Amino acid sequence: xxxxxxxxxxxxxxxxxxxxxxxxxxxxxxxxxxxxxxxxxxxxxxxxxxxxxxxxxxxxxxxxxxxxxxxxxxxxxxxxxxxxxxxxxxxxxxxxxxxxxxxxxxxxxxxxxxxxxxx
Length: 119
Prior knowledge:
Blueprint lengths: L6 E4 L2 H11 L1 H5 L1 H9 L2 H17 L3 H24 L7 E4 L5 H17 L1
Parallel strand pairs: 1-2
């Protein structure tokens, strides 16, 4: 699997924030659970940065919280891991995702299927 062809989905930050707010909404409802997960990142980012993320959560600034977590933690970690684990990622086809709504993903999937059938 790690040597298989890859597909890279790219989405604007706002769309990615929408997706994560939906996928991880349980963290918005349980700050103790969220803070316990954030505490796991202290060794990587330091107490000050994690405290800043917690402060955003405490204020209910969820969009800012998720955006900062994406840019400062998730994206760099994902890049390192992906390039190390998926050798064909540099040659991956890139698909743009411009909406977090299910119909947008369905349209992308349909278009990709049609492209492969006609190829």
